[in-house]
C-alpha cells in the first residue's frame, strides 16, 4: 500500500518545490500564470483550428493562373469595392488603418461594402454592430462573406485568411490585397505560415503599408504592388507642450509575439535601475506585476494616449515585422521613439528623429538613456513633431484610390474585347 502512495507523494512534493521557486522569482502572478498554463494544456483542443475554412483552402489551386473580370468603369466614375475582413477588436491597428482608407474612399464618392469572414461561427449581425461602434465613420453595408459577395469593381482581401474566400468567391471584381505586414512571419514554420505565404501567389494586386512590403512581394513573389505611406491623425496625436516631460512609455502587447514584449520588459528593467526617477508608462494591455515600478494604463483612447506621449521624453516601440503606427504617433507628440534596428523599420519610418538600437536589452536601455540625457529636450520634441506635421491619412487614402483605379483601367485596356472569365470554382 505504501508503494501505491509513493509516486503521488513524490509528484506533490516536486510541484510544491516548483511553486515555491516560481513564487520567489515571479511572485503570486508567476504562480498563477503557471497554473493557468497547466490547466489550459489539459483543456485545450489537441489541434488548434485554422484561421481559414479548409473548404476555402481546397478550392484554391495557385498553380492555375486566374484573372477576374470587373464591373465596367468609365473615367473617374464611382467605384464599388468589396472588403473582406476578419471581425475587428478594440485597439486593432490593422483595422484602424483599413477603415481610415475605406472612409476616405466613401468621402470621395465610392461605394464600399464590408464582408466579415469568421471561421469560428461568430454571428455576423453582432460583429457588424460592433464594427459600426468601433468605426462609426463607415456608412456602407456589412455582410457575411461566407454567404457570398455581390459583384464589384474591386474585391480586397485584408489578411491572409481572407485571401482564400476572395479567390474562391464567384463574384465579379478584380482582386486586390491590402498587405499591412508579412503574415507568414506571424507563425513558426507550419501549415499556417505556408498557407499565409501561398496567398501571395494568388495573382492579386497588392497595396502595401510602406515600401518595404511592396518591394518584398514584388521581388520574391512577382506580385504587382503599390505602397502607401503611413499617415498620422493630427486630430489626436499632436504636440501640446503642456507640463514637464518626465517619463518614458512602452507599447506593450504580450499577446502579439512580433511586438517583442519580453525583450522590452528586460530593457525597461535595466533602464529603471539606471534612472529610478523616470516614470515608466505601459499601455496596450493590462500587464500586472513586473520587476520594476510602472504605471499600467491598459488599452487607451487616442486622446488619452496623446496625453501620455506629451508627458514622456521617449517611447519604446518594438516590431519584429512591419512597423506599427506607434512611432509616427509618438513623433507627432514630440516623444522620441526607440525602435529595434531592422531594414523594414528604417525603410517605412524614414525619419531622422527615430532612435534605432540593436534588439538587445542593453542596447535598447542605452538608447532610452541617451534620449533622457539630451540637453535640449524641448527643442528635440518640437523638431520631431514638425517632421511628421505634413503626413496625413488623406494622402494615404488618395494613394490607395489612385492605385485601385489605375489597376482597374490597366486590366480593362489589356483585356481582349468581348472577354469574359469562365473559370469554374
TrEMBL record:
**InterPro entries found in the cross-reference section:** WsaF_C
Q: Where is the WsaF C-terminal domain?
A: 248-368
Domain of life, per UniProt, equals Bacteria
List the residue ranges of the region (Disordered). Answer: 403-425
Q: Name one Pfam family in it.
A: WsaF_C
Signal sequence span is none
- Name of the protein: Glycosyltransferase family 1 protein
Organism expressing this protein natively: Bradyrhizobium agreste
